[in-house]
Amino acid sequence: MEEIGTNLAKMRDNAPLVQNITNYVAMNIMANVMLAAGASPAMVHAREEAAEFAAIAQALSVNIGTLDADWVCAMEESAGVMTAAGKPWVLDPVAVGATSLRRDAGARLLALRPTVIRGNASEVLSLAGADATGRGVDASDGVNAAEAAARDLAARTGGVVAVTGPVDYVTDGTTGWRIANGAPVMPQVTALGCSLTGIVAAFAVGQPALPATVAALAYYGLAGEQAAAQSTGPGSFQPAFLDALAAMTPEALTAGARVTRA
């Protein structure tokens, strides 16, 4: 992790085509965030074409925020294509413990062995089958409370689990990292967490999943810090954040990333 900016440089060199099956709330901001970062987003979710498009895409992000039965099938079929082809896909289990539909969808997608799982502490606890106290998309559990569940999920899936919060925790089941970058205003802007999932997917193309995920979270959080320093609230933060994502250099990321071994 000493030259974490190289992960950003590689992602931009790849300019990866990332298929995003995400929620209605997130589509616009997520596409703009990914374009600013240097990736190529495609919001393809129709069951009739999702799996076919997955064969073209270099990575996939799956977000169950506004799911229905057809969307879940599209998610499963697309994730299956990615797994079979050895291409990375990222699961964002939004409010996975809230309803039986979400719990079932989370279990079915987990069985397809996502490359990375990214969620808040309550979502990770619920996905792992542990007690959680989340309210919808909000986490009532602290990141520390979900670290053991994250390691368990990583061991079960063979992938990487990222628990995001004030200080993020990322693990492959053996090694853990903490990322302290970020700004308090970020949770006040809808869909920024959802958008981060697409950034993680983009970084994972052609790069090992653990350092790619750590780098993606540090990049996102550092851009948030820079944007917060230039804005006066959530409204002015959004355009400043897009600008900060686009302007970030690999050297600035290496210098500004606050990453430590857990």
Blueprint (SSEs and pairs):
Blueprint: H1 5-14, E1 17-21, H2 27-37, E2 40-42, H3 47-54, E3 59-63, H4 69-85, E4 89-92, H5 100-110, E5 116-119, H6 121-127, H7 147-157, E6 160-163, E7 168-171, E8 176-179, H8 192-203, H9 209-230, H10 234-247, H11 250-256, E9 259-261
Parallel strand pairs: 1-2, 1-3, 3-4, 4-5, 5-6
Antiparallel strand pairs: 6-7, 7-8, 8-9
Helix pairs in contact: 1-11, 2-8, 2-10, 3-4, 6-7, 8-9, 9-10
Short key terms for the protein model shown above:
262 residues, alpha/beta
From the alpha carbons, calculate the radius of gyration and give it in angstroms.
16 Å
How much helical structure, as a percent, in the residues? Answer: 40-55%
What is the total number of structural domains? 1
Shape: globular
CA-CA gap between termini? 13 Å
Poorly predicted regions? none
What CATH architecture label applies?
A: 3-Layer(aba) Sandwich
- What is the CATH homology-level superfamily? Ribokinase
Number of helices: 11
Q: How is the main sheet built?
A: 9 strands, mixed
DSSP strand tally: 9
Under CATH, the topology can be stated as UDP-N-acetylmuramoyl-L-alanine:D-glutamate ligase
Protein structure class: alpha/beta
Query: Which class in CATH terms?
Result: Alpha Beta
Strand order of the largest sheet: 2-1-3-4-5-6-7-8-9
* Run of helices and strands: HEHEHEHEHEHHEEEHHHHE
